[in-house]
Every structure is written in C-alpha cells, then in structure tokens.
Write a structure and sequence with these properties.
This protein has 15 helices and no strands. By secondary structure, the chain is mainly alpha-helical.
C-alpha cells in the first residue's frame, strides 16, 4: 500500500482554496441570492463561473479531505485520529468560526435578506438566542440551527470523518484490501474510473428528492461522504492514478458537455433543481433522473480532470507548497467574512463590475494574508483555535 506523500494532492488543495476564494468574490454579481449583493442585475460571466465551480469544487474538497485522512490514519490509531479531527475541524468551526468569524456574515444576511435595520451589536443577542432556542430540523444534520455560512463544509467534514471511520479501518484490513484490489483492477482499464459515476448518481437520484431542495441535507452529507471515501481510496492503489491519467483530457470534454447540458436543463427547460416540486422536477420524473445523472457525470469528470492535471504537472514539493498548505485551513475559515467586509465598502463605489471584482479580490486576499501572517501563524493560541499545530 502506498504511503509516500502525494505532493499533487497538496497542490490541488491550494488551488481549490484559491478557486473557492474567487468563487465567493464573484457571488456579489451572480449565482442568485447571497448575504450581500451588487444592486444591479445578475452578471452572466459571473453566473457561468459560479455555476461551473458549484458543480464540482466542494465535492473536490471532500475528496482531497478523504485523501488526507488516509495519510492521517497511516500514523495514528483510531482514537488519535478522532482527537486530531476534533483539533483540526471542530476547533476552527467553533473556536474561530460560528461565534467569531461568522458574526459579520450573520449581520450582512440579516440586513440584505432579513429586513434588519439595527446595528451589528444590537442584533447579536438575537442571533445567540436563536442558536440556543431553535431546534434543529430532522432534514439537516446536527446543529444546523447555527448559522454556519461557508463553514458548513467543516461541519459536514467532521460528521463524515466520524461516521465513516469503521469503513476507513475496514479498507485497511486484509478483506478490505481484497475488495479494493478488484475495484482498482476495474478502474485501471481505460475509462474504468468513470464507473464511479454510478454510485454518485444513485445516491443523488435515491435521496435528493426526499429533502425538497434543502441545500445541506442528509442526502448531501451522503453524496459528499462518497467523495470523501473515494479520496481515501485514491492514494492506496497506483492503478487508480493510472486510470485517471488515461482519461484526463477526455474528462475535460465530458465536463464541458455536462456543464452545457446542466445549463440546458436550468435555462432551456426551466428546471428548478433546488425545489423538486416545481418546474417539472417531481421526484423520479425523467427530468429529475436525467438531471442528477448529468450532474454526477459532469461533477466527477471535472474532479478526474483536476486530478489528472495534478498527476501530470504537480508531482514535486517546495517551500512555497509547505507554507501554502499549512495556510489553507485558516485561509478558508477567514476568507468569506473578509470578502464580505471588503465588499460592503467597495460595492457602493461607482466603478464598473470588473474593477470592483478585482479590487475586492486584491484587497480581501491582502487582508486575509495579513491576518494570517501577522497574527495567526505567529501566535500559538491562535494557531490552536485555527486547527494548526504549535510553532
């Protein structure tokens, strides 16, 4: 079983973090409702950029997290692994996240979409009261009465890491390796890696309709959990990488076609995939089944293409990669709140959308790196609540 460090996965994690940063910078101008929006009409280029990344970027994050768990369990017991997940995920989620970093997002959301007209500090007790008095819905995983903003990813990742641990341990056993060997043999054939589309599509078709458009439901937890398990498997067998390399460019074509087909369903057929009981989206209708099959195909195709680029061109490490890879988690935790704060100041400026976007992206990136380099990276207790190890 392979245990050497995969620098390509580290590079891809850094690239994915930069992309999610740009994704949220673009949300002011497209992608539907958000915590804070430009007052003008939706931008088509922003909408296309957001729609493309929305198709595969978060599944890609879960896949990369699964690969990281493979390496984590290689040097830890099950108990040590769970303790590391608490330090690495729950501390940023609650230590820096839900009750610190996300509070400005709560304010922007209340002003933009909730009709709130008071001040930031005036509304804070209302948010805290809501957190501790509203029971969580059975349609969503635990504690989703909290405002998690972009940190829903950490919430899901912790649940998946805990729930999947018995399976992760089984896959390292002799019986698990035998099953893995058969799967790797199938995926080593040209195009065999695309068989993974089948379980992804099956989960979406079987479960998404049960939650009527909920953005962060149990169905999505299962869907992202599959990507996590797939990511865990990838470093275990060289044949997965061989299968990915052989179809990388074909998957780019398949991903582009799938994205176009998704656009046809949403724009051409007016298919509302977020609310399955409207616009011809009744559960198990042909539009529902076809859309989720296309969605899974396009999503996995883009993920395979990105993995193939990593395998081809990102195999070596560097000092920059070590620095950037350590910064990924605190950067992710901070980025959306900083973007919104900068956008709050920039959106009223009477300049074009592109200059606004560039100004927001540049200023927000500089502010995040200043916070990280000047404070978080250098102070042990800030590193601790950010999920980092001590200096």
């Amino acid at each position: 079983m392979r245990t050497e460090r995969r620098h390509d996965l580290d590079w891809l994690r850094v690239i994915a973090t930069v992309l999610v940063f740009l994704f949220h910078c673009a949300r002011f101008y497209g992608g539907g409702g958000w915590h804070l929006k430009h007052p003008g009409p939706e931008s088509l280029p922003a909408g296309l950029f957001i729609g493309l990344l929305d198709l595969w970027l978060m599944p890609f994050f879960f896949l990369l997290s699964g690969a990281a768990s493979f390496y984590a369990l290689g040097s830890r017991s099950a108990g040590q692994y769970l303790r590391s997940r608490v330090k690495r995920i729950l501390l940023p989620l609650y230590g820096m996240g839900a009750f610190v970093v996300l509070l400005p997002q709560v304010y922007f959301e209340a002003v933009t979409n909730g009709g709130y007209t008071g001040g930031f500090w005036e509304g804070l007790p209302r948010y805290l009261a809501q957190v501790f008095t509203t029971p969580p819905s059975l349609r969503t995983p635990f504690f989703f009465n909290l405002f998690f903003g972009h940190l829903w990813f950490l919430h899901f990742l912790f649940l998946i890491s805990v729930f999947s641990l018995p399976l992760l341990l089984y896959l390292r056993s002799d019986a698990g390796r035998q099953r893995l060997d058969r799967l790797a043999a199938l995926c080593a054939y040209r195009g065999g890696i695309l068989l993974i589309i089948l379980p992804l599509a099956a989960v979406r078709i079987a479960f998404i309709h049960l939650f009527d458009g909920q953005a962060h439901s149990w169905a999505h937890l299962l869907y992202f959990g599959l990507f996590f398990i797939i990511g865990y498997l990838l470093p275990m067998e060289r044949r997965f990488s061989q299968g990915i390399r052989t179809v990388g460019w074909w998957c780019l074509l398949l991903g582009i076609l799938g994205f176009g087909a998704e656009g046809f369903f949403i724009l051409g057929l007016e298919y509302n995939y977020m609310n399955l009981y409207h616009s011809g989206g009744e559960p198990l209708s042909w539009t529902y089944v076809a859309f989720n099959l296309l969605f899974s195909t396009a999503s996995w195709s883009w993920v395979v293409f990105m993995l193939s680029m990593g395998l081809r061109y990102m195999r070596s490490g560097s000092r920059f990669l070590f620095y950037a890879n350590e910064a990924v988690l605190p950067f992710y935790v901070l980025h959306q709140t900083v973007i919104l704060c900068v956008g709050w100041l920039v959106l009223p400026l009477t300049i074009g959308r592109l200059p606004q976007f560039l100004l927001i992206a540049t200023a927000a990136f500089a502010a995040i790196m200043l916070l990280y380099e000047g404070l978080i990276r250098r102070v042990n207790w800030l590193r601790f609540i950010s999920g980092m190890g001590p200096l």
